[in-house]
Design brief:
Number of strands: 3
Distance between the termini: 34 Å
Structural class: alpha/beta
Mean pLDDT: 74
Number of helices: 3
Low-confidence stretches: 82-96
Shape: globular
Order of helices and strands: HEHEHE
Strand content: 15-25%
Strand order of the largest sheet: 1-2-3
Radius of gyration: 15 Å
Helix content: 25-40%
């Protein structure tokens, strides 16, 4: 383990008997067997810190992880004066997938 606490390390310490297999991967270079292999992808407060084009790319990559007709749930916070959330949601949904659900 690394000398600093990550969310994964914290979960391993907190739930030592868990059967969860925690993995770390590069979103833009994930293992090939992850492609279209998930029923649900949950994104929480990660892509919002990325600059615009990378945010869209990240969402498109997440869409590639789900099987046909399954879902991505996106949980985020955004500064309303800078980017109206309704316009942002509509823009990303149209470009990415009809299966994206937003919790904002």
């Amino acid at each position: 383990m690394t000398p600093y606490i990550t969310h994964i390390n914290l979960n391993i310490i907190t739930y030592p008997d868990s059967k969860v297999n925690y993995l770390v991967a590069d979103l833009f270079d994930y293992p090939q067997d992850w492609f279209e292999n998930y029923d649900l992808v949950y994104e929480c407060n990660s892509i919002q810190v990325l600059p615009g084009k990378y945010r869209q790319q990240a969402l498109n990559v997440m869409v590639s992880l789900i099987t046909e007709n399954d879902q991505i749930i996106v949980s985020c916070r955004i500064l309303m004066p800078l980017i109206p959330m309704v316009n942002y949601q509509q823009s990303v949904k149209m470009k990415a997938s009809p299966w994206v659900q937003w919790i904002c």
